[in-house]
Specification:
The structure holds two protein chains of two kinds. Helices cover 28% and strands 29% of the residues of chain A. Chain A is built from 15 helices and 27 strands. Chain B is an alpha+beta fold. Chain B folds into three domains: 164 residues, no CATH class; 101 residues, no CATH class; 251 residues, Bira Bifunctional Protein, Domain 2 (BirA Bifunctional Protein, domain 2). A seven-stranded mixed β-sheet of chain B has the order 9-13-14-18-17-16-15, sandwiched between helices. Chain B has a three-stranded antiparallel β-sheet with strand order 1-8-2. In chain B, strands 4-6-5 form a three-stranded antiparallel β-sheet. The longest helix of chain B has 31 residues. Chain B starts with a helix and ends in an 11-residue tail after the last helix. The chains are: A alpha+beta, B alpha+beta. Chains A and B meet through α8, α10, α11, β19 and β22 of A and α19, β9, β11, β13 and α24 of B.
């Protein structure tokens, strides 16, 4: 999520209303007010609306929403006459270039901060950490057009931003903080992307760092914007958002010529949407005129067309409008979520619990009837708990997560019993006897199924208790079982038995082996059992 | 006066009765009797060879309700000891309290000595010495018995078990003594009884004292080192001179002139200090008190006093016997037996009354986890609202977890640091190409798609499901025709660092409704109904963003004392999601974090406690909790 700092004075000037109204209404266009400070407010916007990542963008949207200025904002663009060449060798490295000239900016501390923070937010939300898009902003008056986007030897040097000495691009990747952060985006290519002016001064080493030479300061009057990347749409959105934000702040935008094409145009896209479809989705009665009104409130150009259509001009900064329904959401926002009639649908349906849940609930009932207390251990655990401490061999089909957070959570549980023993460890200091059970999912070979397990610990817990409890639960669940001597090393030899159904092992019970007790730091004997709920007649298999 | 006594507790009455009979009794003896009775009470040992004297005091004591809980436990354990230990303990019980103390001292002897004790013939000197002490200090006629008993104990009992038992016993003895003293103090406050603390000195020689007893006091030893006179410098060369010279002068045995020491008495008579030293060593009990104090100051004698708390009635009650005092006695029946019930004996039975003001012994119910109860409540609400429940696998293919939900393949939520990936892969389902086309170009809809590339390998990878939406979407794929109303509650996984408010796995509730004429407004209606049924009376909605819904919203509920709380997200599935499945009508979908409600309701500060629970917390949380305003 992007948290945007909005200085009141600047925001009030741009929005042409007071801060109280803005703070009160800004959540209604889709945001969370994070902090209200003395001179500014921090507001969190969603990643689908990068156009709101600047005070200028927020003011533009709020003017519309509050009815101060509605409809499509217009951003005239005239050609600057400046050309940009693109080196074909970049095709495999970082092929897309977008650029613009922004003239007549007047920065103060706040607006320069706002543009820097917009740049960073775009790197995150649109640029995917600068991989798709990287933006450079330069003081235009320090360099000489035409400009050249080239693929350069890594040994070439220049003075990077915030440094005093010349460094080679390879050195920058090693030593400059930004170089280290983003080195992975260019490392491995024989040539690195570089933007130079006609005198061969370096403007930028995208997507890593600008040159110190073109640093933007409070005194900067004219800006050259460069935007490079791998995705054409993303690069163009970034250019549009920055240019329109600067235009909102009072600058004029000029296009540059890249490959014979004037860019940017800042022209809107057009969509013709159905009013009845929108009404149907939202559950609101709309006419072409009313719908067009709501859309204009959201800063779209909108004209009713015929009986059921609205022609919509989507401003160039609205990257999120991919589909007609995206416009319907804006209609809903303008209409007001609080005014939507909220009634449940009328269709008659009958509720039906899932049989797995029904069976698990039955098992829970039997366990609690026997005085067992339910616990709900995590499903992520580790081999030490599941196997080593249990003196068991790791079974096949155990799922290991590829990037565990800690050594505690490396696998998905394949059994429940070890987790119950872990629970007893956790509650060693609590009053005995302790009888615990759990019912739930285990996973083997990517397949989820359900098991049930119980433990009882106190000085007299023994095989007989385990047998009696297991028998009670199995009986109540109509599991027709036989037993045979088990070889499960988690239990004491001669005090353990396998639960068999139709000649297949479905569970085990007995008295936990003292070595296992010691491994779990337990001091009293434990009667335990676990079985596969698929042994329940008619139990559903997922 | 009678009124005052009627108001006494049973325990106080009991003590009063004993004092009425005995006039004076020390708390230690009383504790010994109580212990003794408690141990011999084992019902399986009715045929006890040594029936206890049936005097009134033991009769009063024998219902054991005086024992506090921890003592009860110790005695329960003691009664479980095997026969020989029991026998040994019984024998021990016959010894009076000071002897017990002596035996305890024996127990403290080091391990090799304990071993040696197992073969009594090989007893070494320290034990014999200890036996001597017992005889001298406390015992008269019963000495041979003790010796026999000890032999018996030692040969038949697991010494470790015995040590433990004796420790328990001595702790218990101490507690019961304290108990009686406490009761007496209560009676003292009411001016009925009194407690006198009597400390009895018990003198023994220190190691130094023992040495001087054998070799003479330092001053006498020094005096024997020279004739008539000696240069003080020379005398100082002898050891003991630093102590001895002072005492020589103090006792007036010598005089010093110009650095020369002159004897005043060739052979001074035996002093009282020397006599007392011997008397103490011999165990005589009559000796000069001042001399003893002097010897203690010289560090030759030490005092190990024993304390007795003598309980007696205050003067104005001296003549009372309290025989008629109504308290529960051993004659009252605790548990009614079958025989008493069927024979009619119950008609005349004197049933013991219970003190209903006392707290009960805790019994713990077997029950459902409080979190499971909350999950159950939500499930019930949705079933009542006509939803079909879904249940599915934890492991899902990225295709169903992300791609089918129109999550672009480069979406940050799909990165390794947010999702648990598995090395396993699964083949893509039939018709996956439609999803692929949707991502690239928006398929046949008004959508532009995400553009860029879409890789099959990325979609094949398995993950631990990051939301239960992976179940809803597969259900929709299988059931593309209206109406569909389904929900799921299930564990989902996010690769989050675990702390008090974040878990890597947690429960999510998710619901979908698909029908011909359902609207975004209906979605708000379903949510309002659900939250109202959960007890949240005020619900509001605001715009939000979810990658696979449009329009999207967040639901907030109002909780007294906290304010508006975000409870979950919802929206209409994007057409990019539903179209490839052949679904032609809007799908309303919503989800919520179940643990957030659980945390509020159970007042938890740490989410981990839901899964790594303290058994005490589970036992204490009642199954039925009053829910007010949703929490």
């Amino acid at each position: 999520m992007a948290v945007i700092t909005l200085p009141y004075k600047y925001l009030e000037r741009l929005t042409r209303t007071d801060r109280k109204t803005i703070i009160e209404k800004v959540p209604l266009i889709g945001s969370d007010v994070e902090r209200i400070e003395e001179d500014h407010v921090d507001v969190e916007f969603f990643p689908d609306r990068p156009d709101l990542f600047s005070p200028e963008g927020v003011a533009r949207a709020m003017r519309g929403y509050l009815g101060i200025e509605t409809g499509l904002p217009s951003y005239p663009v005239k050609p600057s006459g400046i050309k940009f060449t693109v080196d074909p060798a970049l095709a495999e490295i970082r092929p897309i270039l977008g650029a613009a000239v922004i003239r007549g900016v007047s920065f103060d501390d706040e607006s320069i901060q706002a543009i820097m923070s917009l740049q960073e937010s775009l790197h995150w939300a649109v640029g995917r950490g600068r991989s798709k898009v990287a933006i450079g902003i330069h003081d235009m008056d320090t360099v000489k057009p035409p400009f050249h986007y080239i693929a350069s030897r890594p040994s070439r040097g220049f003075i990077p931003l915030d440094f005093k000495e010349k460094m080679t691009m390879d050195e920058i990747l090693e030593k400059h903080p930004k170089g280290r952060d983003y080195a992975k985006l260019v490392k491995g290519f024989p040539l690195y992307p570089l933007i130079v002016d006609d005198d061969d001064h370096v403007l930028s080493f995208p997507p890593i760092i600008n040159g110190e030479r073109t640093r933007v300061t409070i005194d900067t009057k004219n800006i050259l914007l460069d935007t490079t990347g791998t995705d054409k749409r993303a690069v163009s959105v970034a250019v549009n958002i920055i240019c329109t934000a600067m235009a909102e702040a009072g600058a004029t935008i000029e296009s540059v010529e890249i490959g014979g094409v004037q860019t940017p145009t800042l022209a809107p896209a057009e969509r013709i949407v159905s009013v009845s479809e929108c009404s149907r989705i939202l559950g609101v009665e709309l006419t072409p005129a009313s719908m067009a009104g709501y859309l204009r409130q959201m800063r779209f150009g909108a004209e009713p067309v015929g009986a059921d259509n609205v022609k919509v001009q989507v401003p160039c900064y609205r990257a999120d409008i991919m589909h007609d329904w995206d416009l319907f959401e804006d209609v809903a926002i303008a209409y007001g979520y609080d005014k939507l009639e909220s009634l449940p649908p009328k269709t008659f349906t009958v509720g039906k619990p899932h049989p797995v849940q029904v069976n698990m609930a039955l098992a829970r009932g039997v366990f609690t009837g026997l005085g067992y207390l339910e616990v709900m251990p995590f499903t992520l655990t580790n081999e030490d708990v599941l196997y080593r401490r249990m003196q068991r061999e790791e079974t096949t089909g155990v799922l290991h997560v590829m990037h565990p957070i800690s050594i505690e959570n490396t696998v998905v549980r394949t059994e429940l019993l070890p987790l119950l023993l872990e629970f007893l460890t956790l509650n060693r200091h609590r009053e005995l006897p302790q009888r615990l059970f759990t019912v739930g999912d285990v996973v083997l070979d990517c397949k989820t199924h359900q098991q049930a397990a119980g433990v009882s610990t106190h000085p007299d817990a023994d095989f007989s208790e385990a047998y009696a409890a297991a028998d009670a639960v199995l009986h109540e669940l109509s599991i027709d079982y036989t037993v045979k001597e088990s070889s499960d090393l988690a239990f004491i030899d001669g005090r353990r038995a396998d639960i068999m159904v139709n000649g297949k092992k479905v569970g085990v019970f007995g008295e936990i082996h003292p070595a296992v007790l010691v491994a779990f730091e337990l001091e009293h004997s434990v009667a335990a059992f676990e079985f596969d709920l698929r042994a329940v007649p008619g139990f559903p298999v997922l | 006066m009678a009124e005052k006594i009627d108001e006494l507790s049973n325990k106080e009455k009991k003590l009063l009765k004993i004092l009425g009979e005995n006039k004076k009794i020390d708390a230690e003896t009383l504790a010994g009797l109580t212990t003794n009775l408690a141990i011999s009470h084992n019902p399986t040992r009715k045929a006890c060879e040594n029936p206890l004297p049936k005097d009134k005091t033991t009769a009063i004591l024998s219902d054991f309700s005086v024992l506090n809980e921890s003592n009860q436990k110790i005695f329960e354990n003691l009664q479980k000891l095997n026969a020989p230990t029991l026998k040994a303990i019984e024998n021990l019980q016959k010894l009076n309290a000071p002897t017990l103390k002596a035996i305890e001292n024996l127990q403290k002897l080091n391990a090799p000595t304990l071993k040696a004790m197992e073969n009594f013939q090989k007893l070494n000197a320290p034990i014999l010495k200890a036996m001597e002490n017992i005889r001298k200090n406390h015992l008269k006629s019963s000495i041979p018995d003790i010796k026999l008993d000890l032999e018996n104990i030692i040969s038949t009992v697991d010494t470790q078990e015995l040590t433990k038992t004796l420790n328990d016993l001595s702790v218990s003895q101490k507690m019961i003594t304290d108990f009686w003293v406490q009761q007496a103090h209560l009676l003292e406050e009411k001016k009925i009884a009194k407690v006198e603390r009597i400390q009895t000195s018990h003198y023994t020689l220190t190691d130094e004292g023992k040495e001087y007893l054998n070799n003479g006091l330092p001053e006498r030893q020094l005096l024997n080192r020279f004739d008539e006179k000696i240069d003080i410098k020379q005398l100082k060369k002898f050891d003991l001179s630093n102590v001895g010279i002072g005492w020589l002068r103090k006792k007036g045995w010598v005089t010093v002139k110009d650095g020369i020491i002159y004897k005043l008495n060739e052979n001074p008579p035996v002093g009282t200090d020397e006599t007392v030293l011997k008397q103490i060593n011999d165990g005589d009990s009559i000796f000069d008190k001042d001399t003893v104090i002097g010897l203690i100051k010289r560090g030759l004698v030490k005092d190990e006093p024993t304390v007795k708390n003598v309980l007696s009635l205050q003067d104005h009650y001296q003549n009372e016997t309290f025989e008629e005092l109504d308290i529960e006695s051993q004659n009252k029946i605790g548990t009614l037996t079958r025989k008493q019930i069927i024979s009619g004996a119950w008609k005349n039975a004197n049933l013991r009354r219970y003190d209903v003001t006392k707290l009960p012994k805790k019994a713990y119910a077997g029950k459902i986890h409080p979190y499971q109860r909350i999950i159950g409540e939500m499930r019930e609400i949705l079933l009542e609202m006509g939803f079909t429940e879904l249940y599915g696998g934890i492991v899902q293919q990225s295709f169903w977890n992300f791609d089918a939900l129109f999550q672009p393949q480069d979406h940050p939520a799909r990165e390794m640091q947010d999702t648990f990936y598995l090395k396993e892969t699964l083949p893509l389902p039939k018709g996956y190409e439609k999803v692929k086309a949707m991502h690239i170009s928006g398929g046949d809809t008004s959508s532009t798609g995400w553009g860029g590339v879409w890789k099959e390998e990325k979609a094949e990878q398995c993950v631990l499901r990051t939301h239960t939406t992976s179940l809803s979407i597969q259900y929709l794929a299988r059931n593309p025709n209206p109406p569909v109303k389904a929900f799921a509650v299930g564990r989902v996984y996010r690769r989050e660092t675990i702390d008090t408010t974040h878990l890597a796995e947690f429960e999510q509730l998710e619901g979908i409704v698909m029908d011909e004429n359902v609207t975004f407004g209906n979605l708000l209606g379903i949510l309002r109904e659900f939250y109202n049924r959960m007890g949240f009376e005020s619900v509001r909605f605001k715009p939000s963003f979810y990658p696979y819904t449009e329009p999207s919203l967040d639901a907030e509920v109002y909780v007294d004392g906290i304010g508006w709380i975000e409870m979950g997200g919802a929206g209409v599935f994007r057409e990019e999601v539903t179209a490839p499945l052949g679904v032609k009508y809007p799908v309303l979908a919503w989800g919520l974090g179940v643990s957030r409600i659980a945390m509020l309701r159970l007042g938890l500060k740490d989410l981990r406690l839901l899964h790594k629970s303290d058994v005490a917390f589970l036992r204490e949380t009642p199954s039925l909790r009053e829910i007010k305003g949703g929490i």
